[in-house]
Every structure is written in C-alpha cells, then in structure tokens.
Amino acid sequence: MGSAFSFLISSTEPIDPSLGDLPESCVASVLVYMDPPEICKLSMLNRAFRGASSADFVWESKLPLNYSSIIQRVQNFPNNLCKRDIYARLCRPNSFDGGTKRVWLDKSTGGVCLSVSSSGLAITGIDDRRYWSRIETDESRFKSVAYLQQIWWFEVDGEVDFPFPVGSYSIFFRLQVGRASRKFGRRICNSEHVHGWDKKPVRFQLSTSDGQQATTQCYLNEPGMWKYHRVGDFVVTGSVTPMKVKYSMTQIDCTHTKGGLCVDSVVICPVEFAERLKQRF
Hints:
5-stranded antiparallel β-sheet
C-alpha cells in the first residue's frame, strides 16, 4: 500500500515546462531577429521550433524588400513557393539574360550578389581567333573564360540593368595573368603569351544611370593567380527603378602589345563582402 500511495503522490507533481511547450507564434517572433543559419539550426530542436521556422513572416524579413522584382528577372523560377523556399532558391545561383548573368543571395545576410560571364561582356576583337579564344575550365562558375593571346587595343565593356536593393555595392573584374592547366593532377600556369602588362596600368571605370562614377588603375603583375580587381563602388538609394551600371577595363596604349590574360567575369556584391573576395584563389 505504501508503494501505491507514493506513486499517487508522484503522479500529481507538476511537470517542469520545456522549450517544446512554447507556442509556435512566440518562437517565430524570436526567430525573426536571428540570421538564416541560426534559424535553420534551431529548427532541429523540436516540433515547435520546426514549425515556427517555416513561418512566412520570418523569412520575408530576410528577403530583400524588392525580391519579387528580382524573381521576375530569373529564368525558370518556380511558382507558389513559401517564403522559406523562395529564400533557399534565391541563395543558389540563378541565371538570367540568356545565362550570361547570375544572381544569388548571401546565405547569412540576404545581400544580393551578381556575376556577369565573359560571354556577357563586349570584348574588342573577341571574334578574331588571332587575338582571343574561349577556354573551358572548372575554375570559373560559368565553365569558360576568354583568353587573350596578343592584341594592341585592349578593351572590355559591360553593363547591367538590375533592381538592386537599397545599399552600397562594389564591382570587381575577376582576372588571371597566364593560362592555368593541370599536369599529372597538379595545377600549373602557362606564361607563354604573358607580356605588356608591366608597361602601362589597366584602367577600370564604372558609371551609373544616376550619375555616379569611379575610376581606378593598376598593373597586372601577379601571374598564375585569380585576382579580383576592384573597379569602384556605387550606392543604391531606391529600389523602385532598376539601376543601370556600366563598367569597363582598358589598356589602349598602342605603343606595345599585351597578352596572356584570362578574363573570367565581373562580380557585383555588397561592399562588406570585399574582404571575402580577397581571400579567394
């Protein structure tokens, strides 16, 4: 009888509340202040956090305010996705303009990044195989680069008309002096055609549809390495009207030829990502 009595007493003792007892609406109100990676980790705690992590208002707060305008530019973007799945889809590279450009969101911050392939740039003499050739490579997200053998007049131009969210952005040209290849599993760089880049600097320029401009110049003197060369920065103050941005790199001193350069792409990203690019390749 004593054991039965003790069981009766213990069964009526209050049970301590746990995180699983929190209403999903309360959990979601907390998750909205966290970064996307943190939300994904917390979704694995229990059923309440898993349900709250799927709330539309949580993920809409992480998406750019004009994300619907970005989706309209993307090729084959699925319809009827929840906000969480829209965010996840936009964090993958999404092609537009015939596959010559890609846009994606940074997974941690939701910042918009954009890349333009060498095929989406206007390159002087690109159709003349005496000067330029297309090279397939797994070192480019577009799987090919434009390779300059030799030319007198070097000019690469491009432009993008895109609904950038409000913020500050930087533009970079991704270049490599020399031609990389693999031999016996090792990466090597062929410098056969490299010349002329130490005589005059390359000039980088940008201009925007609202009158912003920037100019920089530098010598291309680090063969065998992919480098992000900063063109300049621009600021977007409103996302109602798309911003048109023009960018170029030139070395048009015709007193000498230049060659041995790989042109991969142009990258546009939030200014705070500049340090990340410097750490790559």
